């Protein structure tokens, strides 16, 4: 555990996401989501690897803010930046293709990137179960749960414990 590095990642992500909100009805602060991933990894799965915890905190910065890979490399080093790049979708592609590519690429991700992916899917299913996007139909929630399972079935080898946490929340499929 490297508290200094982790808190620096938290300050960096909080600044990058400062004007963004989640899609739940209350429009929660965006940073709650990266914090949830780190909380799951550290406190539910017992992960102590600071690179994984930092990458979890930073996981949506390239995809959803103006942050570049080079910026992360400069601030946090190539190890953490590479994990974040591995969990970043190419937003120039249409959404359906992005989702399909996540499934196809998941099995080939590094073990650390798989941990971040697992925590991301757990956090998002918990959010959809408890505080879903206001305009999502039951069908759309089901499609998300089914797609998340496809990604998790290709990453769960990295952590049986996280796989079990995913199965627990997947039982809440509407
Ligand atoms: P989106 O990608 O539009 O939204 C899901 C993403 O939003 C999550 O992965 C998460 O990403 C982020 N997010 C922000 N707030 C929340 C929250 N409160 N709860 C959960 N996630 C949140 O959805 P999809 O395109 O993935 O849609 C799901 C499925 O539905 C797909 O299979 C798609 O094909 C289908 N679909 C169905 C429609 C319909 O009307 N039936 C319409 C459009 C799509 P992150 O972790 O990166 O922040
Ligand atoms: Zn996420």
TrEMBL record:
Q: Where is the HD domain?
A: 30-125
- List the GO molecular function terms: guanosine-3',5'-bis(diphosphate) 3'-diphosphatase activity; metal ion binding
CDD domains with a match to the protein in the record? HDc
Q: Which UniProt keywords apply?
A: Hydrolase, Manganese, Metal-binding
Q: Name one Pfam family in it.
A: HD_4
Q: Which cofactor does it need?
A: Mn(2+)
Q: Which InterPro entries match?
A: HD/PDEase_dom, HD_domain, MESH1
PANTHER family, from UniProt?
GUANOSINE-3',5'-BIS(DIPHOSPHATE) 3'-PYROPHOSPHOHYDROLASE MESH1 (PTHR46246:SF1)
The keyword Manganese belongs to this UniProt entry's keyword annotation: yes
State the protein's name: Metal dependent phosphohydrolase
On the tree of life, the source organism's domain of life is Bacteria
- Where is the organism placed in the taxonomic lineage, from the top? Bacteria, Pseudomonadati, Pseudomonadota, Gammaproteobacteria, Chromatiales
């Amino acid at each position: 555990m490297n508290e200094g590095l982790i808190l620096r990642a938290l300050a960096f992500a909080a600044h990058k996401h400062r004007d963004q909100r989640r899609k739940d009805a209350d429009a929660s602060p965006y940073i709650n989501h990266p914090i949830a991933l780190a909380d799951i990894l550290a406190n539910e799965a017992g992960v102590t690897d600071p690179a994984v915890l930092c990458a979890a905190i930073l996981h949506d910065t390239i995809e959803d803010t103006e942050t570049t890979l080079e910026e992360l490399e400069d601030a946090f080093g190539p190890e953490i930046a590479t994990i974040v790049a591995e969990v970043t979708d190419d937003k120039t592609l249409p959404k359906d293709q992005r989702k399909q590519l996540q499934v196809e690429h998941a099995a080939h991700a590094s073990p650390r990137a798989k941990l971040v992916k697992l925590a991301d899917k757990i956090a998002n299913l918990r959010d959809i179960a408890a505080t879903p996007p206001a305009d999502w139909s039951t069908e759309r929630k089901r499609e998300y749960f089914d797609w998340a399972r496809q990604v998790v079935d290709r990453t769960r080898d990295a952590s049986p414990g996280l796989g079990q946490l995913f199965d627990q929340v997947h039982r809440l499929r509407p």
